[in-house]
């Protein structure tokens, strides 16, 4: 299996389908490495190489466990500490979602949180996964001041339950 394929398999198992490996996520979203290696027929060295080479630092290794840093759809408490966001954060999306977003705000859809990027370039890459990218600025500082709790994942993605339309600048 190529590193790219292994990275995709890890994302899938750690975020969406640990049961397919006969496993469950422990506290913090951690999964024991040994049974995962057996399920994937890969070595610890293979996993270490993919974790170190992940362009977005998608995974963390700690001792004999691994987790995805964000992006889950299975129930998980990542045990992240609340953090104070910068005044502006960015969300990359696609033109087809704009009307709904302007009306209902940003929703987590199939994930646990809305994902926000600290810079426009990263948001553009996120949006471009679905074709033409549209970048929205979120007035995160105002949202936080209004009582909304923000978290930052280990790989620098800002996470929030939702973003009401009033905090989105087209
Ligand atoms: C859109 C990838 C209609 C939202 C990325 C997005 C990121 C709405 C899509 C991470 C909406 C959800 C997350 C509303 C939001 N109505 N559409 N009210 N609110 N949307 O994949 O942010 O490569 O769940 O704009 O790089 O695109 O997997 O979220 O287009 O970091 O590591 O609904 O996933 O990282 O799509 O991406 P997603 P996302 P990885």
Question: What is the gist of this entry?
Answer:
By secondary structure, the protein is α+β, with helices and mostly antiparallel strands.
Class of the largest domain, according to the CATH hierarchy? Alpha Beta
Named CATH topology of the largest domain: ADP-ribosylation fold
Percent strand equals 15-25%
Q: Please write the string of helix (H) and strand (E) elements.
A: HEHHEEEHEHEHEEE
Instruction: Kindly report the average pLDDT value.
Output: 96
Give the radius of gyration: 17 Å
Description:
- The chain has 170 residues and is α+β, with helices and mostly antiparallel strands.
- The protein has 2 domains: 3-68, Arc Repressor Mutant, subunit A; 82-169, ADP-ribosylation fold, CATH 3.20.170.
- It contains 6 helices and 9 strands; from the N terminus they run H-E-H-H-E-E-E-H-E-H-E-H-E-E-E.
- It has helices spanning 3-16, 33-40, 44-53, 98-104, 120-128, 140-145, and strands at 31-32, 59-62, 65-68, 89-93, 114-116, 134-138, 151-152, 158-160, 168-169.
- Strand 7 and strand 8 (158-160) form a beta hairpin.
- The longest helix has 14 residues, at 3-16.
- The protein is elongated, with a radius of gyration of 17 Å.
- The N and C termini lie far apart (42 Å).
- It binds ligand HQG.
- The site of ligand HQG has 19 residues, from helix 4.
